From TrEMBL:
Keyword annotations from UniProtKB, A to Z: Membrane, Transmembrane, Transmembrane helix
Superkingdom of origin organism: Bacteria
Alphabetized InterPro entries for the sequence: CruF-like
PANTHER family: SLL0814 PROTEIN (PTHR39419:SF1)
Protein name, UniProt field: Putative membrane protein
Transmembrane segments: 44-63, 70-92, 112-132, 144-170, 190-213, 225-243, 249-267
Organism: Geodermatophilus dictyosporus
Pfam families: Caroten_synth
């Protein structure tokens, strides 16, 4: 029996390493982004999102089983299309905005790349929230996890949105008032992302609970956390040094501080 178990573990090892390999590829593509321009930069954007969404699906599947991976893919894509199509048509809940033709084919007015970007962001946000709330009282852990995951999800967009507006992927009809230092993205967008995040993370938490294989997680969270960490902190560095976006760079650094402090405090506790 032990030889069979060992053989099964050896067979599963390459699949368990796949999310981390994809995450490293995301980091390399993200490094290339500020070093390119024009059509080359657009190609890098697609590469980042495709690889990042693959990290989310594969890491969810490796950690909780293939059913969870596929369920995360379907749930996030469907939720993204609903929110974004309503947003484009009505301006709710983000404020009025319009996509450019740069992102290619659309579904209900939503470029195909957008649900994949949500997928890239959603799973790492949920994984980090689970770590940040692991010491919360069990009865309050789920609502705390959902709220924190929604906040991380929205904070990620604080860094990402100015970059993609600069790239010409979408424009805001009324970009003011915005966060101090960010004059191209309105505060309504942040409110909309918080609302969308609360809905999405509530559903995502339920999906994981209902589809995960028994026995708990089967691997670590290195891949999604690497993607989240580099795309936010690395993105803030790129904004400051290469993209002439000091406001979003400062916000990215500031929003990372409470997360890092919380993780450090938790690590020091027995």
């Amino acid at each position: 029996m032990s030889s069979v178990t060992a053989a099964a573990r050896r067979a599963a090892a390459p699949a368990a390493r796949l999310p981390l390999v994809l995450a490293v590829a995301v980091v390399l593509a993200a490094i290339a982004y500020p070093l390119t321009d024009g059509g080359g930069r657009d190609a890098v954007s697609w590469t980042i999102v495709l690889l990042g969404s693959a990290v989310s699906v594969t890491s969810a599947a490796v950690a909780h089983g293939p059913r969870t991976g596929l369920s995360v893919l379907g749930l996030v894509a469907a939720t993204a299309v609903v929110f974004e199509s309503v947003g484009v048509a009505t301006g709710f809940p983000y404020g009025p905005y319009a996509y450019s033709d740069v992102l290619g084919p659309t579904l209900l007015g939503v470029p195909f790349l957008v649900p994949l970007a949500w997928l890239m962001m959603a799973w790492p946000s949920w994984v980090l929230a689970r770590l940040l709330t692991r010491r919360v009282r069990p009865g309050r852990q789920r609502p705390a996890r959902v709220v924190v995951a929604a906040a991380v999800f929205a904070a990620w967009d604080v860094v990402l949105d100015p970059q993609l507006v600069q790239a010409g992927y979408w424009t805001w009809a009324r970009p003011q008032p915005g966060l101090p230092g960010i004059d191209t993205v309105p505060l309504t967008n942040l409110a909309g992302w918080l609302l969308a995040g609360l809905v999405l993370m509530t559903l995502l938490d339920l999906v994981v609970a209902r589809t995960a294989l028994p026995g708990g997680r089967r691997t670590g969270d290195a891949a999604p956390l690497l993607v989240l960490g580099w795309m936010t902190l690395g993105g803030a560095l790129a904004h400051a040094a290469f993209l002439d976006l000091p406001g979003s760079a400062a916000w990215g650094a500031a929003l990372a501080v409470p997360v890092l402090v919380t993780l450090a405090v938790q690590a020091r506790r027995p």
